[in-house]
Amino acid sequence: MNPPVSSTAPAAASAPSAAAPARGANRCAAVARALGEAVLGSAPETCDAWVLVEHPGPWPAHGLPPDVPADVAEFIERLPAYRIRPQLVRRPGNRRPVPPHQVYVAYSGGPHGAPVWMERREVADLRELLDLDVAAVSRGERPNWGTEHREPVLLVCTHGKREPCCAQFGRPTVRTLHAAYGEPVWETTHVGGDRFAANLVALPHGSYHGLVTEPVAAEVGAACLRGEVDLAHYRGRMGLPHAAQAAEWFVRSHTGIRTVEAVRTLGHVERADGGTTVDLTAAGRMFRVTVRTARSGCPRLTSCSQGSVTDPDGFVLDDLRELSAPTG
């Protein structure tokens, strides 16, 4: 067993790049950027799968647009109970008229790293969604509702009615990504983490990147399209506990491994002292990492839409060691 890494490592190696514009300088994402807030360990942990439904908008701040049929709206609103995250999506710029609607269904691997997959289907009527076997999707099984889709999909939250920072930072970011990469890029509704706008999510892996501004958008997008992460902006992988996401970040920082699928969480144990110990594999190597949360000591606006002023937790590395053999 190798000796542990120093427990005094900071929560993140460096702050994401690019200064906030003067307009909206007091908004939550601008404040997070100005303070150099670390984004690691902040991806949503309550869902493992996705349903993306093309809708050109306008999107209300909460709920679904009124033109979504009532039975379809009821179906979509039930999805989170199956650990499936529903999203509305649309093309940047000149939006494609609907119907037909593009619909994607994806599974991001869940907390135990099951195989990821994605299906795509074009529907003339949104009521075709009612035929989707959501129980199978929640178990990580392909429902064969659509055709297999092997290319990554990039989502950028531009949901300005929900959170003004997502419009301010998300729209320039998605324009840059769409100009660079075209077809894989979509605007989407709220993905979580207001103060980390612009937020970029890559499917099928459910990898989240935050504070992605226009100058770095193409670089971060290129990493996602290669099936990698950009560590300076990497929030974590959806469906994993926050502490496991943080542990993954520290292992990637220690090893230099960037491929999404090369690092997998095996399990985690919450300790009596408030820390969490996480076992991981990284490109065939075994690691045990202990992290804990710590307040920043700087209360500030963390959500413009909710008017929330809090002192958010960040993650600190207590211990990182490589194991000589798998643990029992």
TrEMBL record:
<feature type="region of interest" description="Disordered">
    <location>
        <begin position="1"/>
        <end position="20"/>
    </location>
</feature>
<feature type="compositionally biased region" description="Low complexity">
    <location>
        <begin position="7"/>
        <end position="20"/>
    </location>
</feature>
<protein>
    <recommendedName>
        <fullName>Sucrase ferredoxin</fullName>
    </recommendedName>
</protein>
<dbReference type="Pfam" id="PF06999">
    <property type="entry name" value="Suc_Fer-like"/>
</dbReference>
<dbReference type="InterPro" id="IPR009737">
    <property type="entry name" value="Aim32/Apd1-like"/>
</dbReference>
